[in-house]
Amino acid sequence: MKILFITDNFTPEVNAPATRTYEHLKEWIKDDLIDITVLTCVPNFPHGKVYEGYKNKLYQKENIDGIEVIRIWSYMTSNSGFVKRVLDYTSFAAMAFFVGLFKKYDLIIATSPQFFTTWTAWGLSKIRRKPWLFELRDLWPESIKTVGAMKQGKVIEFLEKIELSLYKDCDKVIAVTDAFKSNLISRGIDKDKIDVVTNGSNVDLFYPRIKDKEFLAKLNLENKFIIGYIGTHGMAHSLDFIVKSISKIKDDSIHFLFIGDGAMKNTIVDLSQELKLGNITFLNPIRKEDVPKYLSICDVSLAPLKNEDNFKTVIPSKIFEASAMQKPTLLGVEGQAQEIIETYNAGLCFEPENEIDFLKKIEQMRDEKLYLELQNGCQILANDFDRKKLANEMLNIIKNLDTNR
Question: CA-CA distance, 245 to 124, in Å (whole number)?
Answer without folding.
Answer: 49
